[in-house]
Amino acid sequence: MDHAADVYKTDLMTVTRHVLNEQSKYPESRGDFSILLSHIVLGCKFVCSAVNKAGLAKLIGLAGETNVQAIRVTGHFDLQGEEQKKLDVLSNEVFVKALISSGRTSILVSEEDEEAIFVEPSKRGRYCVVFDPLDGSSNIDCGVSIGTIFGIYIINDGGDPTLDDVLKPGKNMVAAGYCMYGSSCTFVLSTGSGVNGFTLDPSLGEFILTHPDIKIPNKGKIYSVNEGNAKNWDGPTAKYVESCKFPKDGSSPKSLRYIGSMVADVHRTLLYGGIFLYPADKKSPSGKLRVLYEVFPMSFLMEQAGGQAFTGKQRALDLIPEKIHERSPIFLGSYDDVEEIKALYAAEE
Ligand code: AHG
Ligand code: MN
Ligand code: MN
Ligand code: MN
């Protein structure tokens, strides 16, 4: 009896291997995507490590001093001696440097940078990456799950890169994903043929496939919204949330779960089912979440997992953003749950 096989799975399906398998279906791909992804994964591993230390740093009062632990990340960039930075600024720098050093990107759009970053010609590649380097930053200091969200477009043919390469509907993305820094570090990715989840094995430093082919339940028992905004909601949202709490069909009320980090709320919705809402309200008529690097990637994943994503007016992935930091209301999750709120908005028209 081969005991090793019992203890050690020998067929390690890492993110890189998984993507190489998928990419082999597209002979024209020259491995560029795998190289780009490996740099995104490197950034996530760095942030995972920094997030785990952040609490400690806070405890032993390192915050605000020079970053004494010289964090050297092999090869690409060295943050040694950097002033202790806020985690979202540090994370942003790590992803920007990793993506540029991949030599596979031409434009980067980050929540942390007012302007798009146009990569210098000698380092340009065929991809444009839009990302939220640290999502849920209000939860950093209390140790609640936070994350990174990203979406990937292929640059338009010919000519120098322009904003038109990223001001495209989310349905044009070739890939989207997130990394959640929680009790474990989970990387969830879709390249357009389903959704797969990988968990970081710290002993290997590799993300291993743990959630193959994720499918969201058609209907869920959870709704996820910041009820604190209830007085500012429009009619259909208010009616929908009311129906979650006081169902008219005699079914039991849905449970409310709201973490306040989009990555964590969406990850739970993807695995357990239900609906996540960040509606428009009187104070923020376009809602709060950003189209390019929060709404689109999460909507892409939801559709790939069999769910759907709606803005209150249309399918979220059909939106065409006019500005790189544009916001949109979003209702996403289990197909049947989103259908209910779509019906309420349709009745308003
Ligand atoms: P970020 O930290 O990247 O700015 O994102 C925070 C977002 C999102 O993570 C979450 O769903 C939402 O803010 C929570 O907003 P409220 O605190 O208004 O509910
Ligand atoms: Mn965010
Ligand atoms: Mn952010
Ligand atoms: Mn923010």
TrEMBL record:
**GO cellular component terms listed in the entry, alphabetical order:** cytosol
User: What's the protein here called?
Assistant: Fructose-1,6-bisphosphatase, cytosolic
Listed GO molecular functions?
fructose 1,6-bisphosphate 1-phosphatase activity; metal ion binding
Q: Give a Pfam family name.
A: FBPase_C
Subcellular location(s): the record lists: Cytoplasm
The UniProt entry's GO biological process terms, in alphabetical order, are: fructose 1,6-bisphosphate metabolic process; fructose 6-phosphate metabolic process; fructose metabolic process; gluconeogenesis; sucrose biosynthetic process
| PROSITE patterns (UniProt xref) | FBPASE (PS00124)
Q: What is the lineage of its organism?
A: Eukaryota, Viridiplantae, Streptophyta, Embryophyta, Tracheophyta
Write down the species. Kingdonia uniflora
Fructose-1-6-bisphosphatase class I N-terminal domain segment(s): 13-212
Q: What is its EC number?
A: 3.1.3.11
Q: Give the source's domain of life in one word.
A: Eukaryota
Q: Member of which family?
A: Belongs to the FBPase class 1 family.
- Residues forming the Fructose-1-6-bisphosphatase class 1 C-terminal domain are 216-345
Q: Which UniProt keywords apply?
A: Carbohydrate metabolism, Cytoplasm, Hydrolase, Magnesium, Metal-binding
Cofactor(s) needed: Mg(2+)
Provide the reaction this enzyme catalyses. Answer: beta-D-fructose 1,6-bisphosphate + H2O = beta-D-fructose 6-phosphate + phosphate
Q: Which Gene3D superfamilies match?
A: 3.40.190.80, Fructose-1,6-Bisphosphatase, subunit A, domain 1 (3.30.540.10)
